[in-house]
Amino acid sequence: MELSYEIRRSTKRKKLTITVERDRSVVVHAPANVSDGAVRQLVDKKRLWLFEKLQHEQKYQPLPHPPGKELVNGEAALYLGRAYRIELVDDSDGGIRFAGKFLIPRSHVRQRRQVLRQWYVERAREKILPRVCSQAHGLGVAFEQATINDSCYRWGSCTPGNNLHFNWRLIKAPMFVIDYVIVHELAHLIEANHTPRFWNIVRAQLTAMDRARDWLRDNGQRLEEDV
């Protein structure tokens, strides 16, 4: 069976790695001087693993929710792993407030996705980025920069330049899941590939690793849903 993939080369990268994105695309990250033949060799070696990833039903099925539904009182939105009720309020000036529920001004209903997204992004910067520093200290590693981004296909990433990026949608997940994604990306600063050593590093830093992976497998699509 034919397997298509994209090669992304970088002068900063030292090792060949393969990732399967959530849109089913296969990406090979390669040092600039690695030949196409060496890339093909790695893809052939990982072919069985790649097909298993590509056939993962839950992770890659289309989202079930219909787009553009009306926002009404009583709907719920996720935050740190829990669903909180949405209440529309007569407040023409302020933005979204959170007080055990989401208080959204009626004037923002038409822009609900944008304003709620911005609220999530702000909370992600506020809560996730400090934990990156804390977990990095625990692992004894240093990174260049950590940012919150809008990646559609990855929860987190670690670049060859030791920059870390985290999907803002993670703020909807429980904190132990957020910590897992953080530690996962930080561990790549020690071990680039998903080797047994890599997983031992993650598990040693985060005892809830398996529980977090299970949670993402079962609930990852909920993080991607709009309100």
UniProtKB/TrEMBL annotation:
Family matches, as Pfam families: YgjP-like (PF01863)
Lineage: superkingdom: Bacteria
Cross-referenced CDD domains: M48_yhfN_like
Domain YgjP-like metallopeptidase stretches: 14-218
PANTHER family with a match to the protein in the record: UNCHARACTERIZED PROTEIN YGJP, UTP PYROPHOSPHATASE
Name the UniProt record assigns to this protein: M48 family metallopeptidase
Organism in which the protein naturally occurs: Rhodanobacter ginsenosidimutans
Lineage, broadest ranks: Bacteria, Pseudomonadati, Pseudomonadota, Gammaproteobacteria, Lysobacterales
